[in-house]
Amino acid sequence: MAQGRGGLRGARIGAGPLGEPERGDLAPRVVASFWCGNGHHSQPSFAVEAVVPDVWDCPKCGLPAGPDRENTPAVESNAPYMTHMGYVRQRRSQEEGEVLLNEALAKLRGTI
Ligand SMILES: [Zn+2]
Q: Looking at residue 80, what is its pLDDT?
């Protein structure tokens, strides 16, 4: 009885009359594999001309991911705050630190 209005007829969307490919020529792409420290595997694709990066952010957890499954990139310290001495130690070797310290002491003593 209640007949529809033929809403299903011709419902195909975007099909060109000639069946043309939707996206035109696809640029050739390469798929790279990356693993993050949490073991997530992601496979971003890159244009062939593009340089595949050494590190890719894991789309699942955001950790840096690398192409070597057994040797994932070291996680940069996510510590929100590091003490000043932490930064100093990070930047200077012990030896350099002593040189600086001696210079500072010498200045304090007025010998420079
Ligand atoms: Zn991950």
A: 61
In terms of pTM, does the model score above 0.90? no
Class of domain 25-66: mainly beta
Query: What is the reported pLDDT for 106?
Result: 92
Every domain of the chain and the residues it spans: 25-66, 79-112
The residue among 30, 109, 36, 111 whose CA lies nearest residue 69 is: 36
Q: How far is the CA of 98 from the centre of ligand 1 (A)?
A: 41
Q: How far is the CA of 83 from the centre of ligand 1 (A)?
A: 28
Instruction: For residues 77 and 89, give the distance between their C-alpha atoms in angstroms, rounded to a whole number.
Output: 14
Distance (angstroms) between ligand 1 centre and the Cα of 52 equals: 18
Contact 29, 43 (CB under 8 A): no
List Cα–Cα distances, 44 to 11, 58, 84, in angstroms.
33, 10, 38
Give distance in angstroms: CA of 21 to centre of ligand 1. 35
- Residue 112 has, within 13 A of its CA and on its CB side, a CA count of 8
